[in-house]
Amino acid sequence: MAGSALIWSPTFGYLVDVSGTRQVPYLFGLTLLFASMTIFTAAHSVPWYMAARALQGAATAMVTVAGLAIVTDAVDKRKLGQMIGYVGTAMTLGFVSGPLLGGIVFEIGGFYAVCGMAFMIITLDLLLRLAVVEKRVAAKWLTETERAFIAESNNSSELPYGTEVHGNGTIKVIKQDGTFALFNLLKQRRILISLWAIIVSNVVVSAFDATLTIFVQKLFHWDVLGAGLIFLPGASAAIFQPFFGYLSDRLGSRIIAFTGFTLLSIPLISLRLVNQNTALHITILCIILGSVGLCVDLSEPALMVEIQRVLDDMETKDPGVFGEKGAIAQAFSLHSMAHFGGLALGPIVGGFVSFHFGWDAMTLALGILALVTAVPMLWLSGAKGEEGSGDAERRPLLAD
């Protein structure tokens, strides 16, 4: 699934940007998800299961990219980190509650009951999405004076890319078609640094997903339930993502991401302290895993905010560079690629190192990787200046 999402993310990002609305691509993604569940429910062979999972990955890529674009369109850019934090919390709760609800329903009603629950959730999502009116659609109903007032009150940050507000209150939209912006984005150093950090954070998470259950089964002799519950300390840290996003909005991406990856190395390397089957070591393991989750969640909103800031800076330097419809979905498709790439790579790296060199070597390697990754975070942007001070206060600390 992760491989399919990785492949389709850039294509779907472009389609979301060039379409007249975010709603149609989002609904298309949900339709793909519905189709994948239909195949999965009816499948009775491995090839069909693989086809369903591949289609599910493509649907996940479309829904993720379109959903992030919708959020970015709807909120004040000065509060984007906090809102992305809410999205991150919701996603984590979904990942955690999915297996739990699926297990309970499977125990009560069997396989087809689980599939029925999935169909109901997708249908509910479709209905909720149809009830949403996007900002770019609602803007068509406003007069030029109303649009100018909104633009001035938000420093023109709420209008689409390529929109100019003139002194007489009129609005001029630079009429350009949507552009394929991925290659242009990949030339930006801050984008590349952010993508690398996203890959590393997801490698850490997925490496634990692949090896932690084996570790606790060998050391503590836990059954499947205990091995599943051990992920809760790390996942529960996601409730702090909105606060971490708020810090990113106020302090900038640089200090938050640097702090997150620097601190992440400490609990990762400290996992070697857990080596006995005692209540004390179980407690230490839970505390360390909670600390890992906190550090990963601390960095996530900051990295996504940085991607948006790079777009803003590019548009300020060259108005209309991305056309009338902007390139936010394409930018977040790069984030999606890095996210799913890390999820696909993590189990391979974690499993290989753990199998050949042991658990301690794997956690040490991940800790060193996190510490090394903290260094390029110094090239990200700092805190935004006070109102009207421009972007001078958020220039990278280590600039060319």
UniProtKB/TrEMBL annotation:
One of its GO terms (cellular component) is membrane. The chain crosses the membrane at residues 24-44, 50-71, 83-105, 111-132, 191-216, 222-243, 255-274, 337-355, 361-380. Keywords: Membrane, Transmembrane, Transmembrane helix, Transport. One of its GO terms (molecular function) is transmembrane transporter activity. The lineage of its organism: Eukaryota, Fungi, Dikarya, Ascomycota, Pezizomycotina. It holds the Pfam family MFS_1. It is a multi-pass membrane protein. This is Major facilitator superfamily (MFS) profile domain-containing protein. It is found in: Membrane. The keyword ATP-binding does not apply.
